[in-house]
Design a protein that fits this description.
With 121 residues, this protein is α+β, with helices and mostly antiparallel strands. The chain has one domain (5-118). It has 5 helices and 7 strands. It has a 7-stranded mixed sheet. Helix 2 (29-38) packs across helix 3 (40-46). The longest helix is centred in the first third of the chain and has 10 residues, at 29-38.
């Protein structure tokens, strides 16, 4: 399996992750099928950008629900926040689990609460 992206030192440092710099992120067929079936709009519009969302997010954070890493990109043309959730296995292998639209309300709430942190360009 080939990596789709790498987790940068900046993300590791900000979120205090116990990962090596440039940890690879993979995506399995079951995760691709999940995105196609559960999030067809996002798959059609944003799946080709999944690696870019992980490597160049506008916001990052840890999900309060399952501690997955949230990589969020704001596509200003459409005014849509797109989230890629990455989760590490017990062996430390990172997989992109899902890609979906994050409502503006939830995105702004996460930003206000500090759950999502803005990355400086």
């Amino acid at each position: 399996m080939k990596p789709i992206a790498y987790i940068s030192k900046k993300v590791i440092d900000i979120l205090k992750l116990d990962f090596e710099i440039d940890t690879p992120v993979y995506i399995g067929e079951s995760n691709i099928e999940h995105i196609k079936n559960r999030h067809p709009y996002e798959y059609e519009c944003y799946f080709r950008d999944i690696g870019n969302i992980i490597e160049n997010p506008d916001y990052i954070g840890l999900s309060p629900k399952d501690n997955s890493i949230m990589f969020v990109k704001l596509y200003e043309v459409h005014g849509e926040y797109i989230r890629v959730a990455v989760k590490a296995t017990q062996k430390g292998i990172c997989y992109a689990r899902t890609l979906h639209l994050l409502s503006t309300y939830n995105a702004e709430r996460y930003i206000r609460k500090g759950t999502l942190k803005k990355l400086d360009k």
